Every structure is written in structure tokens, then in C-alpha cells.
Amino acid sequence: MRNTRSRPTGRRPLLGAAVALTAIALIGHPGSAVAQDQDEEEGPKGWYGNADFGFSLTAGNSETTNLGLSFGIHDELATGLWTISATYILATTQGEETANKLDSQLRYDYTGLGRFFVYGLLYGGFNRQAGIDAIVAPGAGVGYTLFETTATKFSLNAGGAGLRESFQNDSTSTKFSLNLGQDFTLTIDDDTNLTQSFAYIPNTAQFSDYLLHAGLNFTTMFSDLLGWTLSLIYDYRNQPFVDATGEARKKGDLFFLTGLALKF
Questions:
Q1: Model confidence at 232, in pLDDT bands (50, 70, 90)?
Q2: Which fold has domain 46-263?
Q3: Which value, in Å, is the radius of gyration of the alpha carbons in the chain?
């Protein structure tokens, strides 16, 4: 994890991201999964998941603490997929917080439309060093799988979300945003995979107010249960939070995580 020093901010109680997904209308008719290079159809997996943990600590001339936690739980159905996921990052240097960020999401994908899919989600989180105490964003959209084989999958998605943010100066903002993105998965072998995602999230009332989010994850398993993971996360906010002194937070945040990976 890479630490970047920012203005000290007062510690506030961590805000939990309570997630509850609103009802999603299932559109269309059941269809077969999109697949190539497969001799026969595979049935749904049911419940499966992963958890990643990274921690480092130094003391003496340099006092630092870095903690990274993430998990994903999935329930794969014949024509749908439930996903519950969260990533938490905490870093301190000489007793001062340099990172304190949570991203969590509850999502349902309806996949019974061939190459097309429909999704609904509820996002919750915060980013203290960016000046954001809480974010809640329910949304929905559609996607299209450009190609899928036994080793690769590439899809595009487009949707919208209502976004409510609470800032450290006790102000709030409510707006509607678009979400345009892509996802890519590469299965290198039975034990190693790479995933990549990118999203462009503009405010529909002011397109110069936008967020870019990019993620890259590499995981390799040493056994059926234990492995090693490496993640890069980059967030870019074109109009960052401005505090009471008139100082704006930095537009870009880069996070590096590495540690143990568990599969279940």
C-alpha cells in the first residue's frame, strides 16, 4: 500500500456501509450463457467467495501501520449472480492517518439474456483523506459481453445512480450520475487470474464534475485455500472537496494492496 501524507483530519467514528438492495425487475426470457471453447455447459456454482488480508507495522525511528482488508461473496444462480463485496484501507504514519477508505457494494446481475445482462446495486463507503464522510449510491444499468471464453471475458456496462455524499464540513450533496465502464478477466491457469475494471462516473447536471475509477487485481493460489494477491486502485475526482480554509484535496488517490488471499 502506498501512503501519501495529507492534511490531518479529526478522527470520527467509522461509518458502516449498511447495504440493502431494492427490488430489481427481471427483464426478458431465460437464455443460455455466452461461452466459447467449451465442450459442454457448466452448471451454476452456488455460493463461493474470497477474502484478502494485508498488514504491515514499523516502530522506532519510523512508526507506520498499514492495513488492507477485502472480501467478495457470490451466489451464482442459473440466470443470476448475487455479489457482496467490500474493501477497507487504513494507514497511519507517526500517529497521523494517511489513508482511511471503505468501498462496499451489494449487487445483483440478471444473466438470462444471452450476451446482455441487467444489474442493480447499492454502493456505500467513505474516504476520510478525500474529505468524504459517507457515500450512498443506489443504481441500475445494462451490460453487454463482447466476448467470453474459458480463459477470458470482456464486457461493457452503462447505467445510472443516485448519489448522496456527506463531507467533513457537515455539508451534503445529492445528485444523479451516469456510470460507463468495462470489466476484463483473464484466467492464466487453474490457480492464477487477473481482473481489470474501469469506470467513468459524471454528474449529469455538470459533466466537469466526474469520477474516474480504475482497478487491477492479480491473484495466484498456493493451495485450494491459500494464496497471494496484489491490487492497484486509482480514484480521480475532477472537482475534489474544498475545506473551510479554501484548500482543495488532491484529485487523485492511488492505493497499493498486497497480502494473503483465501478462497472458500
A1: very high
A2: Porin (2.40.160)
A3: 19
